[in-house]
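Inverse folding, one chain.
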């Protein structure tokens, strides 16, 4: 008789999968906006992409290796990206004066609100949601490294 090894997906792996799928969706969405729709990202969007794109790779590798310790090196990117997204949302809402806007007059601007929406939802708010959800997923990973 041979014993068969049953493979069970743990709660931590499902949580990592959710974080990865959110990061992948955000990354593909940003690439779609830039490459397919041809919308040039503003400075703050670029910085948020710098935080989001590596998260996709980090979370994919963590998921592949069942490495729940991934939160130790993914959370700093989430925190930086979330801070930038909150700042960007503040600019979008008008809570932060436009005199300190990092966007230039000649380049893409945060003030063009018609181009800053996807399905009626402002891109800065979607970014806040993505980074927040990824952060919550990572904070809910409880296991230890195998």
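Residues assigned per position:
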């Amino acid at each position: 008789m041979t014993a068969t090894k049953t493979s069970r997906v743990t709660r931590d792996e499902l949580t990592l999968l959710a974080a990865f799928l959110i990061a992948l969706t955000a990354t593909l969405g940003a690439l779609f906006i830039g490459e397919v729709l041809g919308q040039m990202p503003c400075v703050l969007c670029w910085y948020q992409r710098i935080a989001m794109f590596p998260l996709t790779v980090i979370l994919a590798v963590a998921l592949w290796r069942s490495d729940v310790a991934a939160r130790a090196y993914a959370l700093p990117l989430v925190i930086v990206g979330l801070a930038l997204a909150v700042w960007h949302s503040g600019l979008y809402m008008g809570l932060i004066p436009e005199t300190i806007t990092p966007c230039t007059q000649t380049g893409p601007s945060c003030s063009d609100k018609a181009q800053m929406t996807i399905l009626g939802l402002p891109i800065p708010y979607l970014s806040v949601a993505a980074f927040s959800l990824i952060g919550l997923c990572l904070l809910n990973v409880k296991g230890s490294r195998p």
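The chain has one domain: 11-139. The first helix runs from residue 11 to 36.
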